[in-house]
Amino acid sequence: MGVLMQGRDLKKLVKEKGLPWTKHHIQEAFAAGEIAPEDFSIKDMYKHMIEGGGELLDNWERDLRRGGHVTEAIQAVDTGAMANIIGQVFFNAIQDAMSMENFIGDQLVTTFPSNLQGEEKVPGISVVADEFAANVTEGKPYPNIAISENWVTIPAAEKKGGIIGVTKEAVIADRTGILIERMRTLGNSLGLQKEKSTIDVVIGADNPYSYKGEARLTYGDGVTAGQALGFVNEAGHALVDYTDVQEMAEIYYAILEADTNEPLSHSPDTVICGGNLSWTASAVFNDVQVRLGDITAAPAIQSIGTNRIPDKFKCKILTNEWVIQRILVGAAAGLGGLVAGNRAAANLFWIMGNPKKAFVWKEIWPLTVVEEPTNSVVEFEQDVVMRFKASYKGAAGVREPRYMIRNAGA
Fold first, then answer.
1. Is 161 helix (H, G, I), strand (E, B) or coil?
2. C-alpha span between 90 and 88 (Å, rounded)
3. For the chain, which residues score pLDDT lower than 50?
4. Which of 8, 61, 74, 384 has the smallest set of CB atoms within 10 Å of its CB?
5. pLDDT digits (tens, 9 = 90+) for 75-95
6. Is the preceding peptide bond at 141 cis, omega within 30 degrees of 0?
7. Cα distances (angstroms) measured from residue 82 to each of 2, 8, 19, 142, 144
8. What are the backbone angles phi and psi of residue 356, rounded to the nearest 5°?
């Protein structure tokens, strides 16, 4: 793949295969790990892919060294094909930075595409528990299943993004690596914004849950004002051993489906906690041998067996430092978070359930990198020969809090 990154070969590919094919070929090479953004040279691409690019570069270097009259702006310069390919390179750099190894947000939500940028009502289906209890006798009509009046509201989407320009100086000095680092910084910032906003919703620091137009907390005791969910999904058990998971299972399965009043048909599959508690969680869920009994007795009476947690309750453990930071952030000033400035208390929290059933990411558009049309005003005013805008628009929301239980751990 090394020859692919040479400007003259890229130009040949665009001419013979077309720009869409070339971009797709590059994307496949990125996906396969055969190339990296650093394998491209903006200066080399400008020299070989732009008509008269070598001469323009020579003029720029000469004019920047000595000052004087610059004449290349008299004739329009078409950077379209090059900008498209660089845009693909920058997209991959930003996408990689947005998907940092430590980010867990995308594993906590189900993404659904939407074109409703404001608040969005999601209706339910009314199927009461005894709707099919009666026998449909011969010749009689089947019962009608109606659309429910129940609905939840998904919040309005938010747009995040930024613009980075490629200057003449950056092209002349071939600062490809610096530009890619800036793109990665932009991608990391975008990814971090999405990560924090998603975790805020999942832990209940941000409460966008709205049922039939009534704002409610995501977690609650079922009766307190603002927590009248009709069920309990908040507890105070510390995570020490399998018996604490057993207690959570009893609470979880006591919650009934909203429309049918039947038990939940899914088991928890995820535990979310801070890094400190993840050590305990890993032992509780993954230890292969457990000893129970009174070791102080004479003789000691013990039962030795495999992990006591049933297979359907074997949860994956998701953790990162942002979980703790979002539990703490602003709590003292009433700006969100769950505990005020107490890291030890924050590390006691553990949230168990099926987050992809409980939470959604409403996506107006995913990460998108757009190149600015050539010969723009900023090229004349600021010597910016290309600009790229990276953005996404979406919002985290609560679809069904019945699938989650939050534990304060005390």
1. strand
2. 5
3. 1-3, 68-76, 377
4. 74
5. 445 667 888 888 888 888 998
6. no
7. 18, 11, 9, 63, 59
8. -70, -20
